[in-house]
Amino acid sequence: MKRILFIGGAVLVVLLALFAFRRSAGDAANEYQSVTVTRGAITQAVTATGTLNPVVNVQVGSQISGNIRKLLVDFDSPVKAGQVVAEIDPAVFQAAVIQAQGDLDNSKAALELAQLTQKRMVDLVAKQNSSQSELDQANAALHQAEANVKIKEGALQKAKVDLEHCTITSPIDGIVISRSVDVGQTVAASLSAPVIFTIANDLTKMQIDAAVAEADIGTVEVGQNVDFTVDAFPRRTFHGAVVQVRNAPTTVQNVVTYDTVIGVSN
Questions:
Q1: Helix boundaries (H) for the chain
Q2: pLDDT tens for residues 20-31?
Q3: Taking the chain, what is the end-to-end CA distance rounded to the nearest angstrom?
Q4: Around Cβ 229, how many Cβ atoms within 10 Å?
Q5: Per the count of CB atoms within 10 A, which of 84, 188, 216, 255 is most buried?
Q6: Residues 6 or more apart in contact with residue 196 via CB below 8 angstroms
């Protein structure tokens, strides 16, 4: 009998605690707060990543093969259009110019001989001291000599151009942002022009090539404002604007993105 009363007492305590908890919860739920109704804008944000580059970024290379004899600029050097930035050893190309000049002189001498021979054959045929076939041969030899002179002139011009390419100049005004070779290094231009310098035209005007997902590209338009951050300044937010949305898609691992160009004032 005592055991039954003890259990009943425990049940009564639990019921009283549950009632007190529900009452306190009900009092908290009945608290209200009034505010003024306002109208606000709904903003849809598009996130993307990209690289920050100069607007004009030129890779200066060599059209000929040879050893780098001089490097006249280095990293962060300001340059002007037409300024000499590097030189390739010109010894081989100077010799090629001399050889081409000699070949041209030799062909001109052969042309003079062909002209004299042709004139002589014309006089002999007129006096009936030679046959027409010999005159035809003299005319053909003259034309071949004239063509050979043109070939040698072209070879000499090419040799001079190659010699001029030993002096590498900057095509634009700007600043050197990278250098890929050292003095004494050999550059080979057999298949493609090796890059010696990378020159940025104006670092005050930059652009971001951002890869925007296909699902978001429909909401991106030219002129929209852009806020972005860079790793070098993690606590700063920079601003730009969309200047171009390119139509050509890029697919990487079945993910389609579109290149969006963002103009930035540095």
A1: 2-29, 91-126, 132-164
A2: 555 555 555 567
A3: 90
A4: 11
A5: 216
A6: 60, 61, 62, 68, 85, 86, 168, 179, 180, 181, 187
